[in-house]
Amino acid sequence: MSSTTAPPPAVLVLEDGRRFIGTSYGAAGRTLGEVVFSTGMTGYQETLTDPSYAGQIVMMTAPHIGNTGMNDEDMESRQIWVNGFVVRDPARRVSNFRSERSLDDDLARYSIVGISGIDTRAVTRHIRSAGAMRAGIFSGTDYSLSDDEQLSLVRGVAEMTGQNLSELVSTPETYVVPAMGESVGRMAVLDLGIKRATVTYLAEHGFEVHVMPATSTVDQIRAIKPDALFYSNGPGDPAASDEHVTLLRTLLTEGIPYFGICFGNQLLGRALGFDTYKLPFGHRGINQPVWDKVTGRVEITAQNHGFAVDAPREGITDSPSGFGRVEVSHYSLNDNVVEGLRCLDIPAFSVQYHPEAAAGPHDSFYLFDRFRELVSARANNGDSK
């Protein structure tokens, strides 16, 4: 809704001392985190409610944000997870028949401190050059803090490297979503920051989906007698999730078919014995080109990750952890980052991107069919547990 009252000032402060003055957007106050940019021109609600963005201040590179409002149907989780939100030109009014409330309303409702009216292109170019970094948004009474005080607060925030954030965003207790159509078995899903669309699509592909807390033990997973295992997307550093890696190694040894996306791809990489590393500024948005080495097809994908698997891009490699032969199945056409892993001697594969992207694109939706076929084939061959 338009207003004749000018919004109060706000400032985005980067850890290298750069400052960008704008106006307060959403809640007023102070927020701190890693500043990243997302190149998606649509789907801002899915971005805001994606648990993978916990701990981050998200800046949208598309200049005009908010015109389609917000609704309950497109929520990917129970709340907005971003630490802060940065836009150039927020919509003055909502204009969409599906809207139930404005973006401004939801930002205030979830106490998300934001800033608008800054040169987001300049910030993006700076991050692409200098790398993702810690930042803070200051408005309200915090806007009056001295430059040195604001910068000190920013530099006092923990870096994303080394952070384990899965428990922060995971479900507090297990819940079950029944299979739709012909059932292919029971799936244990480790919720490391899962999106609602993922659960829906897994159920639509015939899995009885047991969504379990990030703190689940191997005995708790064994207790449901799963026919398949899934690790979801999620925030944080995969190198700080040793317990999830150990859990995965145990279940891979038992022959349970595995599918992982995003964080689940990084954890499969570590379980197989590869390292992970932090990208300079990450991949975030819904227009990321990926090469499928098997089919030769280019997929336009939705991505949100700041870490990647360090594995040989060409050829077949023996798993350092003893799980047989592994190959990189997909890689980024922007920077050659590993975007998928395929195990040749155990039933496991993963991708770094989001085949469930509710806001699109849907080029990679076939991966759900591929996993269903893998699990069904093993059951028909008598390999299921």
Q: Could you describe the largest sheet, including whether it forms a barrel? A: 11 strands, mixed
Helix proportion:
10-25%
Please identify the structural class as seen in this structure: alpha/beta
Number of domains: 2
DSSP strand count: 20
User: What is the helix tally?
Assistant: 10
CATH class of the largest domain: Alpha Beta
CATH superfamily of the largest domain: Class I glutamine amidotransferase (GATase) domain
User: How do the SSEs run, as a string of H and E?
Assistant: EEEHEEEEHEHEHHEEHEHEHEHEEEEEEH
Mean pLDDT: 94
Estimate what percentage of residues fall within beta strands: 25-35%
What separation lies between the terminal Cα atoms? 57 Å
General form:
globular
Pathway: Amino-acid biosynthesis; L-arginine biosynthesis; carbamoyl phosphate from bicarbonate: step 1/1; Pyrimidine metabolism; UMP biosynthesis via de novo pathway; (S)-dihydroorotate from bicarbonate: step 1/3
GO molecular function: ATP binding; carbamoyl-phosphate synthase (glutamine-hydrolyzing) activity; glutaminase activity
Family: Belongs to the CarA family.
Region (CPSase): 1-186
